Amino acid sequence: MNFVTIKKIPTAEEIIQQFPLSEDGLRRVSRHRQEVKDILAGKDERKLVILGPCSAWPYDAVMEYARRLKRLSEKVNDKLKLVLRLYIQKPRTKKGWTGPVNRPDPFLPADIEAGIKYCRSLMVNCVEMGLPIADEALFTHNAKGFLEMLSWVAIGARSVEDQEHRIFASSIECAVGMKNSTTGEIEPAVNGIVAAQSKHMAVFLGYQVETLGNKHAHLVLRGGLGGPNYDLEHLRQAKELMDKNEVDNPAVIIDCSHDNCRLNGDKDYRRQMAVASEALDSLSDQPELKKLVKGFMLESFIQGGNQNADKLTSETINRDGLSITDPCLSWEDTEKLILEMSKKV
Prior knowledge:
This protein is an alpha/beta fold. The chain has a single domain, classed as TIM Barrel. Helices cover 37% and strands 16% of the residues. The protein contains ten helices and twelve strands. The chain has helices spanning 12-18, 23-40, 59-76, 112-129, 163-171, 187-197, 232-244, 271-283, 287-292, 331-344, and strands spanning 47-52, 80-85, 133-136, 152-155, 175-179, 200-204, 207-211, 217-221, 252-255, 262-263, 266-267, 293-299. The strands form three sheets. The chain has an eight-stranded parallel beta barrel, surrounded by seven helices. The N and C termini lie far apart (54 Å).
């Protein structure tokens, strides 16, 4: 094999013992998962909103965001179910920082053992606070110790056509959102949903297993190279594709960030507010499509915008909730938007 061994990593069981989740925490995760599924299946009329930092760093700022989100959630819980976006692993188009699970300090060499402990501790604290949490399935081989705490999982635009990710989605117990590809095409993601909802033979932990299928796999529209795809035309296309493929519990989450916040070819993270508002307004007289759209995703942190960690040092970087990956809405704009959305749904 073409690698150099650095050090042995503690087992997932050892990490779990070091950062245990309480029985109350386990029960909360089970309840949150069921509520998310009920919303996607139309049994609960609330909308999902999956929101939080582009990447879960730094620790203290993420915890401060979580505390604010918990208070906000209590104000809107009758209309919206807020799920904390706690993304610990980052896909890169070419190369770059792959998130705190691999490198918990962006200014030091990668330390996966420290990263696993950082992320496990962060997730446990947020779940014990009472929040449902979400992550993207990027490194599927490293899921144990994290997966059991998640209430929602994303399969990203770069992974949605990958068979391993589709089988992984088929095997897990929480709802899975399949993003359309970076080109903006919707059909590959619907194909991914069909695959995720189906059974598969696979090898897990040295055993041949049959996955049972994830009946709450659903579509996430995030725009593409051609621009946004949250408009009624694309929603109708998504509905037709899911109807054609007899998808169980057909549902769409609109990702207000990424290519959906493009305007005249350029991305503007502040347009996330307009995307959510425009989508809700356009759906007001479209009962079938309004029924299809089950929620929204937002990239949001304490401060608006982002910073380039490659051009900063450990001493000069802002650690008070300013993203080091994609730009995010400020907390003030986030709170304003969530309160407005709760009045429109």
